[in-house]
Design brief:
CATH architecture of one domain: Sandwich
Number of strands: 7
Helix content: under 10%
Strand content: 35-45%
Oligomer: single chain
CATH topology of one domain: Immunoglobulin-like
Distance between the termini: 75 Å
Shape: elongated
Order of helices and strands: EEEEEEE
Radius of gyration: 29 Å
């Protein structure tokens, strides 16, 4: 019967070789000959609309703050406003959607504020009624 083999001693490791703590990855740069991964896409968050009266009862000035938390600029897009027609007794009679251009470009990490004049057709807002732009959304590229 043969005696069991003793384990072979481990070879000494050099600095930088072997697994890295935390599961391993090396550097964040791409290997030579490969392009760097593209930056993260633009990601806009919008503030609640800040409303102010305009010179006509069927219009109002709406200020929106756009914050790009993504890694790329928002190059173009559309802002959509949901304007409610409110009666004298507070009844919400209708919601009219309208769109305008995004104040592009909005660079990555930048906050930009824009004031829009939002109007509906005058016949939709008889005397005693008013408009309120309550919701704002946006799409971008």
């Amino acid at each position: 019967m043969r005696p069991p083999k003793s384990p072979k001693p481990a070879e000494p490791s050099t600095p930088g070789s072997g697994p890295k703590p935390g599961g391993g990855g090396g550097t964040t740069s791409p290997p030579p000959g490969r392009p760097a991964p593209p930056p993260a896409p633009a990601a806009l968050t919008l503030s609640a609309p800040q409303r102010a009266p305009a010179d006509k009862r069927w219009c109002e000035k709406v200020t929106v703050e756009f914050r790009n938390t993504g890694g790329s600029p928002a190059r173009s897009g559309t802002v959509t406003f949901a304007t409610h027609i409110i009666g004298a007794l507070g009844v919400d009679w209708a919601t009219i959607r309208s769109s305008q251009s995004l104040p592009a470009p909005i660079a990555a990490g930048v906050t930009r504020s824009e004031t829009y004049t939002v109007c509906v057709e005058s016949w939709r807002v008889p005397l005693g009624m008013r408009v309120e732009t309550q919701d704002v959304s946006a799409v971008w590229e």
